[in-house]
Each structure stands twice: as structure tokens, then as C-alpha cells.
Amino acid sequence: MSQALPPLYALRAFEAAARHGSFTAAAHSLYLTQSAISRHVKTLERHFERPLFIRHGARLELTLAGHHLAQELERGFSLIEAACAATLQQRGSLRLKAPSTLSMRWLLPVLGRFHAENQGKRVQLSSVWMDEDHVDFRNEPFDCALLLSDGNFPAGWQAQELFKEWLVPVCTPAFRAEGEWNMERLLASELIHSSPDRRDWIRWLQRQGITDPHRCHTGPLFDTLELGINAAAQGHGISIGDLSLVARELDNGQLVMPLANAVGTGDSYYFVWPEQQDRHPVRAALGRCLRENLPRPPASLPAFLE
């Protein structure tokens, strides 16, 4: 008769604690309490009759036995996740994570077209606010994602580049009013920021030779590009946005560029997925649909500055 195995939930708790090096972080990742993680680890230590961690206050160090167990469990849970992913593929649905502004300004119409043209294939979209785009395929319930990134992804990921990010300043025609616009006039205006760290304006200004970040440390702060663009469209100042995602407003005259310079950030929007999803029929069809329906640039193009 084979030896009884310890509880699966205890093994999962230990693997998370070993991976994070912290009971607190493990608890957060598994939606448990820190005391629950601690109890599960103690259950394993009683089962194996040896310590798995050396505890240095809040810091954890794996023992030799703990190190070997963590390595094997990581492989084992990866196999379990792959088996579950393969089973989910049979249902004909795909779970997609995407940033909220990209979803509103481009993705939703594309998914509507995808579902109309691919009967029986479903994409379940989760549109999520993210200050910096990310996905954790090990611990989040997604099969694929759309991310703004520099293209440096973890081992085991596949990626399809969709379109590059080009930042442009935008405001209403009334806000731009008459007269010549130059850098000093722009800096004297109300600048609208689409992230708390003001990174988009800082990057755009640096490419224009404005290296003092304090020159743009005024103006309202929003946490999404969508809100920043909407504020500019209501005449509250000059926002900074992705050229591809504001093309509609530029073409219909709702927004204009006071200075028509587009700055490349080096980032692009990518369609990414873990390699075990390579053969998912819905993923492959979605990838084709995304490539065939990329956002169009505005009719009047700015000067492009790498």
C-alpha cells in the first residue's frame, strides 16, 4: 500500500511560501490568512518529520529538504495547471485580460466582430485597471492577455506584437484657440496626467529637450488614459495619449494636437499567452482577428520622434 500523501492544500501553501519567501505574500497570492499558511506548513513539517523552513523573523529560508520539495512541487503544479488548461480548451472559450483604456478604445469592437465571425468560439474579457500592465498566468485565471510592454517577457511566454505606442499631446480646438503654439506656451498650460507618476508627459517632454521633470508637475492626475482623454475633450487642459487610441477624436475634430510631435516610448501593445496555450483553437483565431483589425492612424499624421 502506498504511503499516504499530505493534503494538497498544504502542499500548495508551502509551494507559494517557498516561491515568495514570505508567509504574508503567499497568503495574499492564495487569498488566505498568514496564520493559515503557517498552519499548513506546520502540517507538512509534521508529516515529513523535519523542518522545511528556517525562520528569521518574517524572513524565510528553505532547508535542504524544503528546497528539494519546492522544486518538485513547482514542476508538479505546472503539470496540473497544463492539464486543467487543456481541459478548459475543450469548452471553446478563452479568458482574456486587457487594460481598461485599450478595451474601451479598440478591443470591444474587435471582439464583437470576432464573435460575429466565429460562432461557437467565445472570448471572456476581463478589462482591468493597471497602473503598469501585467499578468500572472500562474496565479490569475487568464489564458492570454493584451499588455503594453517593452517586449521582455518571462520564459515560457509567447508574444505577438500588435502596434507601437506613440505619445501625442491633445486638447480641444477651443483650448488651442488662435496663435502660435510653442513649448513655453504648452508648459504654461494645464497639463492633464493619465498616471500618478506623470510618466507619459515626462517622456514626451524629455524627447523635446525638456529634462526638468518639475516643469510638468502641475495639473490634475487621473489613473487611466481614458479619463485623461475625456478631461481634455471637455476642455480642461492638454492631455497626453497614444496616437492610435485617439485617432477617432483627431479625425472627427473633437481633439487636436497643439504641437504635432509623436514620441515613441519603445513600448508596444502585445498579445501574450503561456506556451501551453499554443494549440488553443480560440487563441489562434483571436490572434488572427487582432492582427487584421489593428487601429488605424489618424488621417493627418504628426512628426514621429523615436
TrEMBL record:
InterPro entries, per the entry: LysR-type_TF_proteobact-type, LysR_HTH_N, LysR_subst-bd, WH-like_DNA-bd_sf, WH_DNA-bd_sf
| Biological process according to GO | DNA-templated transcription
The segment(s) forming the HTH lysR-type domain are: 6-63
Specify the superkingdom: Bacteria
Q: GO molecular function, one example? A: DNA-binding transcription factor activity
Keyword Transcription annotated: yes
Its keywords, alphabetically, are: DNA-binding, Transcription, Transcription regulation
Q: What are the TM regions of this chain, as residue ranges?
A: none
The similarity comment for this entry is:
Belongs to the LysR transcriptional regulatory family.
Q: What is this protein called?
A: LysR family transcriptional regulator
Q: Which organism is it from?
A: Stutzerimonas kirkiae
